[in-house]
């Protein structure tokens, strides 16, 4: 006997759809690592894929356990909040570290400092 015997078919379909959608979005984000040209373009794809894919997978997980336990299970919300908050921060730290390293080494693949200053409004 497993818990799957108690799970209605419509719930299993919804959970499967969420998990497959999350896996597909995460895979597409991972493929961005292969397709995009340099580090600065490449860093965005897995960040977006991980965040959106994680959200879909956690939605399916929360729904699955809520139906089986007949009460709302919300610990997935904590996981989603943690990943959603830490992923963009990690992206910014990695990009800034790479930008600093490339500028100090004199690499030509980085945006010029003057361009970044032009985007900041005076004030």
UniProtKB/TrEMBL annotation:
Transmembrane segments: 12-34, 46-65, 77-95
Protein keywords: Membrane, Transmembrane, Transmembrane helix
Listed GO MF terms: sodium:proton antiporter activity
Entry superkingdom: Bacteria
Keyword Iron-sulfur: no
Pfam families named in the record: PhaG_MnhG_YufB
Protein name, entry field: Multicomponent K+:H+ antiporter subunit G
Organism placement in taxonomy: Bacteria, Pseudomonadati, Pseudomonadota, Alphaproteobacteria, Hyphomicrobiales
